[in-house]
Each structure stands twice: as structure tokens, then as C-alpha cells.
């Protein structure tokens, strides 16, 4: 499970109110003061000391997520005189939004800096920056993380989009951040509710093009804070976020303080699963923006996703050390599960955020063939793929520049019958045929490239048959065994020292001999 640390940021809040809160009546005059008092009718405290100098007459101040609204009448050194527009009861420490003003407040507070160090000390997987307005604020946080991190480990940053300035500067922010969160609560207050759907779709589309993950958040199942079932509008909202192509959907108050947290999680999962089924059934009718990634790895990932459709593959398997291949692959929104196999527990956790990605942990290997075989075995063991399934694999050939992804292959997951030591680099399919030396001249034995010969051991009398055959299997093992020596001399794919379900290795069965892995599999034509 990945952990995201959400920095509080420069959230404007009211101060402490009297017990039961302070009632606000329509057209009532209300004084906001920086003095440290207990709020009472007509006069309430605010925590940000510079606010009286930051707002002007005629501007709006929204309280408690926009449930209460004030109009600024006059400002002084320590006070703001306002008129109540939307009524209600103001409780302690409620949030304040200024949709008509632009405050020059640092995105990172002193408390945020302490929280960043705490988060890094506890090895969180993501850090979210609140109230981002420009890309420089993201870079500032990244530099701080780099300075605090052990060995310079770069914990990725999620930029929360909840200010109008952030929407204006979105391209630079997406480029600077490792992903974004659409924080629709504050965004809807700071802009207007009717613009949130179009902004949401725009942000998701831009993240797809940039190959960055996007989280859709806030008030998705808000009624489930109080009720065991969502409204139909909320169900549609969650489903539409999935259909838009978001990587993740987020609950906040529903699970943090709601009365039905388990029901909320279960409900959201069911809605998301149903939306995924709808998306798959609609197929080509839903078009997502494609990433603009002009690299060899990007081309391989694009080809892998396209190939998975054309070959009706069960999954795409992407062995990855840094997670870069899987992240890029996910941005193409594949129609099948993306199995990311990695030796890094940190990368495994971080990849849980990405679209359709199922990260699995494995051991570190250095040989490309071993990496591919291990990835298939891990995915098979976890039940994501089974015998007879076709899968698309990507990998980086060991030794290439920076181990970048530069290889794609299509593999069928056939039932393994036996294993041994592979001789050669090829995979061949054919019909199993038993032989028992000595052979004689062998002229009366019909053998062709379609035959894979199987013997306890061979001698020189078998050479004529081997020349005509497609492959060799022997029980006798060792690289100095007659079978291994003959295979090398003839350039013949072979497996020596084979072990396994030998009773199934009867004449006439169709098999696949993989000399790379030393694996003999059943071949279902």
C-alpha cells in the first residue's frame, strides 16, 4: 500500500469560536480581526495576520468550504469590516477562500518544512503540495526533498490544483510535478462550480499527454459522510471521472470523519469497476489523448499497447527497476492489466497509483532472459495469467544504454512439462519422437524439422537423425554430455538433463522446446 503525505500548505482559517459557534444573519455586519479573541456575534478572529492588507472593498470572502459568504466593506490595519451574504453558523478553525484576491503567500509554511522531514524520515511514497500556484513552488519542494532525502532519494511530488492561478499555469506545473491532484473542493470555491467539470476533463487530458498520473478528489461521495448510500449524482460523478481517464479517485471526509467509511470504500470500488466494464465494452468509442513521448522507450510502450489489442493478449508484463517503463506504459491506457514486476519495494508501492497497473515484487536479476522468464513466472504465480494465455512483454536488453526499454515480444503461456539445461538461443515447436541408439544408418526412420527427438542419451549413430530434426531432448545432463556436444556442433536447439513430468512425454505430443530457458512446454495449436 502506497502512502501519500499531504502538506497542509498556507490554508487560511478562522480562529476559535464560542461554544456552539457564531450565528451569521443575512446583511449582518461582521468584523474579522487578527486579535487573538474568542469569536462572538459581530466579531470573529482570523489566523492570517496579513489578510486585512490583502483584500479590498467589494471582494468576497468564503467560509467553511463556501457554505458562508461575506462581502468586504472596509479594511483596516487589523480588521476587516464585512457584510453577511450567505447565512449559517460559523464554527472554530474553518477554512477561508478568497476567489477575488490573489495572495502572495509562500506555498510552503514552516510547519510544511517540518512535515516534509517527518514524511521522508518515515519513507512515504508520495508528497502532495497544497495550494500550488506556479511551477517554481513545485521545484522548491523538490529541492527541499533532495536536500533532506537519504542518498538523495527523490520522493515524487503531487501538485494539488485548487487555485485559479494553478489552472492558468497548468502546463508548467504538470511539467514540474510528478503528478497532479484535482482538488475539486477548493477549486470549485475559488473558481465556480459550473467550471469544475470542464477543468477536470482538461486537466486529465493534459496529464495523459504529459504521461503524468492524475488523481480526481474531493466530495466524490460526500453524502456518505452521513448516509450509508450515495446519491445517484455522486455515482455518476465517480463513474465519469473513471471514463475521463483519471488514474485514481480519492475519498477524504467520507473515510476521515464519515459515519460509513467501509461502505464508502466498497461503494467507490464497485462504481469504478462498473465504469471500467462500460469503458471496455465501448472499446474504440472512448478515445484518450496519447502521450507525446518521443523516445525509443515511448515507441516500444505504444507498440506494446497496440500489439496487446491485436493479439488479444491477457496482459502486458513490464519488468522494471525504476518504474519508468510501467509509468509510461500506463499513460497509453492499455485495455488489459499492466503487470509491473520490480525488485524495488518502493517502486512497487509507487506504481499502485498508476492506471491499470498491478505491481509485483521479485528479486533482482541481470540477464535479460532470466528477467523475462521470472516476470512471467511471478505473474503466473499471482494468478494474473494462466496456461494458454498470450502476453506482451517489454524489457531492456542488458548492456544497452541506461538499460532503457528497447525490446518487445509476444509470448504464449504454455503448460510446462519439464525443465533442463538449454543449449542454444532458439525456441522451436514440433512433435515429440523417441529414439533409442544405436540407430544404424537411419534411412528407414522418417525424421524432419517438425520432429523433436527424445532419448535417454545419444551416440554418434544419431547424428544423421539429428541433422534432419528440429531439436533434441536428453535425460543425460551436463555440458560435456554427447547430447550437449552434438547440439553445439550442429547448432541444434536442445535441452539436456531434463526433469519433470516425463510420463507425459510420449510419442506424437506437440511440444515447445525453449533453448533459452531450458523449458519444455505443451503446445496447443
Rg of Cα set: 32 Å
User: What would the principal axes of the Cα set say about the shape?
Assistant: elongated
Q: For the terminal residues, how far apart are their CA atoms? A: 41 Å
Number of helices: 15
Q: Tell me the strand percentage band.
A: 15-25%
> Approximately how much helix is present in the residues?
25-40%
Largest sheet, strands/sense/barrel:
7 strands, mixed
CATH topology of the largest domain: TIM Barrel
Total strands: the figure is 27
Tell me the CATH superfamily of the largest domain: Phosphoenolpyruvate-binding domains
Query: For the largest beta sheet, what order do the strands appear in spatially?
Result: 2-10-6-7-8-4-5
Number of domains: 4
Average pLDDT reading:
91
* CATH-scheme architecture of the largest domain: Alpha-Beta Barrel
Structural class: alpha/beta
* The CATH top-level class label of the largest domain: Alpha Beta
Residue windows where pLDDT falls under 50 for at least 5 positions? none
What does this entry look like structurally?
The chain is elongated. 30% of the residues lie in helices and 25% in strands. It has four domains: 86 residues, M1 Pyruvate Kinase, Domain 3; 176 residues, TIM Barrel (Alpha-Beta Barrel); 117 residues, Pyruvate Kinase, Chain: A, domain 1; 107 residues, Phosphohistidine domain (Glucose Oxidase, domain 1), CATH 3.50.30. The protein has a seven-stranded mixed beta sheet with strand order 2-10-6-7-8-4-5, with helices on one face. The chain has 525 residues and is an alpha/beta fold. It is built from 15 helices and 27 strands.
Amino acid at each position: 500500500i502506497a502512502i501519500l503525505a499531504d502538506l497542509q500548505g498556507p490554508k487560511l482559517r478562522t480562529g476559535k469560536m464560542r461554544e456552539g459557534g457564531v450565528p451569521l444573519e443575512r446583511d449582518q455586519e461582521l468584523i474579522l480581526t487578527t486579535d487573538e479573541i474568542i469569536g462572538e456575534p459581530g466579531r470573529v478572529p482570523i489566523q492570517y495576520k496579513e489578510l486585512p492588507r490583502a483584500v479590498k472593498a467589494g471582494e468576497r470572502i468564503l467560509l467553511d468550504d463556501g457554505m458562508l459568504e461575506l462581502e468586504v466593506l472596509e479594511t483596516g490595519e487589523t480588521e476587516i469590516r464585512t457584510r453577511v451574504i450567505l447565512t449559517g453558523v460559523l464554527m472554530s478553525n474553518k477554512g477561508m477562500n478568497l476567489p477575488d484576491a490573489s495572495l502572495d503567500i509562500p506555498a510552503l509554511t514552516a510547519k510544511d518544512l517540518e512535515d516534509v522531514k517527518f514524511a521522508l524520515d518515515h519513507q512515504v511514497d508520495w508528497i502532495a503540495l497544497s495550494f500550488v500556484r506556479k511551477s517554481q513552488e513545485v521545484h522548491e519542494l523538490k529541492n527541499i526533498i533532495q536536500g533532506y532525502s537519504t542518498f538523495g532519494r527523490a520522493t515524487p511530488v503531487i501538485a494539488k490544483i485548487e487555485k485559479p492561478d494553478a489552472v492558468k499555469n497548468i502546463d508548467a506545473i504538470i511539467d514540474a510535478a510528478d503528478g497532479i491532484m484535482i482538488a475539486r473542493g477548493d477549486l470549485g470555491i475559488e473558481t465556480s462550480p459550473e467550471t469544475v467539470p470542464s477543468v477536470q476533463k482538461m486537466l486529465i487530458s493534459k496529464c495523459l499527454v504529459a504521461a503524468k498520473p492524475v488523481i480526481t478528489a474531493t466530495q466524490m461521495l460526500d453524502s456518505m459522510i452521513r448516509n450509508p448510500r450515495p446519491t445517484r449524482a455522486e455515482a455518476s460523478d465517480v463513474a465519469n471521472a473513471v471514463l475521463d481517464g483519471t488514474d485514481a479517485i480519492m475519498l477524504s471526509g467520507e473515510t476521515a470523519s464519515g459515519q460509513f467509511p467501509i461502505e464508502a470504500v466498497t461503494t467507490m470500488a464497485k462504481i469504478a469497476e462498473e465504469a471500467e466494464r462500460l469503458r471496455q465494452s465501448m472499446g474504440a468509442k472512448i478515445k484518450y489523448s496519447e502521450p507525446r513521448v518521443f523516445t525509443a522507450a515511448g515507441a516500444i510502450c505504444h507498440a506494446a499497447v497496440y500489439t496487446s489489442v491485436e493479439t488479444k493478449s491477457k496482459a502486458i508484463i513490464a519488468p522494471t527497476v525504476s518504474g519508468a517503463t510501467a509509468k509510461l506504459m500506463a499513460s497509453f491506457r492499455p485495455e488489459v492489466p499492466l503487470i509491473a514486476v520490480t525488485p524495488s519495494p518502493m517502486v512497487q508501492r509507487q506504481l499502485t497509483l498508476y492506471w491499470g497497473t498491478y505491481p509485483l515484487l521479485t528479486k533482482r536479476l541481470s540477464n535479460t532472459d532470466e528477467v523475462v522468464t521470472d516476470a512471467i513466472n511471478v505473474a503466473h504465480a499471482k494468478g494474473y495469467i494462466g496456461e494458454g494465455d498470450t502476453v506482451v512483454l517489454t524489457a531492456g536488453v542488458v548492456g544497452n544504454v541506461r538499460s532503457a526499454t528497447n525490446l518487445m515480444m509476444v509470448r504464449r503461456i504454455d503448460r510446462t512439462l519439464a525443465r533442463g539445461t538449454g543449449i542454444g538461443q532458439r525456441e522451436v515447436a514440433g512433435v515429440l519422437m523417441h529414439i533409442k541408439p544405436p540407430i544404424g544408418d537411419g534411412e528407414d526412420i522418417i525424421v524432419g524439422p517438425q520432429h523433436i527427438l527424445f532419448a535417454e542419451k545419444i551416440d554418434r549413430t544419431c547424428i544423421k537423425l539429428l541433422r534432419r530434426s528440429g531439436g533434441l531432448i536428453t535425460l543425460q545432463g551436463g555440458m560435456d554430455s554427447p547430447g550437449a556436444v552434438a547440439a553445439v556442433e550442429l547448432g541444434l536447439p536442445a535441452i539436456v538433463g531434463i526433469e519433470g513430468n516425463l510420463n507425459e512425454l510420449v510419442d506424437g505430443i506437440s511440444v515447445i522446446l525453449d533453448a533459452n530457458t531450458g523449458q519444455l512446454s505443451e503446445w496447443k495449436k
